[in-house]
C-alpha cells in the first residue's frame, strides 16, 4: 500500500520544454493527480494582463472554465501549471461538478519517473492561420503529433481545456 501523504508528482526540468511535472511514484489510471490552482479572473482581466512576458508572448498559465471564468496559474498557482502539452497525453483535465475546479487525471497507468502530459487543446478567438499554428508549435514528437498546441476544429463534441481568452495566452 502506498502512503497517501506521498505526493503523486514532482517538478523538475523537462527534456521537452522548461519545467515539467513527473510521476513521483506509480500512478494508476483514473487517479486524480493534482488540482490546477490559481486566481479566478474574467476574460477581460486576462486580456488586460496579456502578454505577461513580452519575450514569450504566447505563454501564460490561463485555464478557462465552462463558467467563463479563467484560472490564472501564474497568480496563486501550483505545480500543475508546469505540466507540458502532448498530442498523445497520459493525463487529461476534468472540471468538477460545480465547474469551479479543474483536476489533472491519469488516462493510463503511469510509471514512476514518467513526465505527465495533457493535450492543451488551446482555443483562440478568430481564424486559425498557418502563422498562428506555428506560433503555438508542438514539440511533443508523438507519432500522432498535430504540430500545434491549438485545438483542431471539432467535428462534434468538445471539451474545455486550456483556453486563450481574447488575446493569445496559455
Explained architecture:
It holds the Pfam family SET. A 3-stranded antiparallel sheet has the order 3-9-8, with no helix packed on it. A 3-stranded antiparallel sheet has the order 4-6-5. A two-stranded antiparallel ribbon has the order 1-2. It is mostly beta strands. The C terminus is likely disordered. The longest helix is centred in the N-terminal third of the chain and has 7 residues. It has a single domain, classed as Beta-clip-like. The protein is built from 2 helices and 10 strands.
Task: Give a quick rundown of the structure.
The protein is built from 2 helices and 10 strands. The protein is mainly beta and 170 residues long. The protein has one domain (9-135): Beta-clip-like (Beta Complex), CATH 2.170.270.10.
Show the helix and strand layout.
Layout: E1 9-13, E2 19-23, E3 32-36, E4 39-41, H1 43-49, E5 62-64, E6 70-72, E7 84-85, E8 91-95, E9 102-106, E10 117-118, H2 130-135
Parallel strand pairs: 7-10
Antiparallel strand pairs: 1-2, 3-9, 4-6, 5-6, 8-9
GO cellular component, one term: chromosome
Domain SET: 1-121
GO molecular function, one term: methyltransferase activity
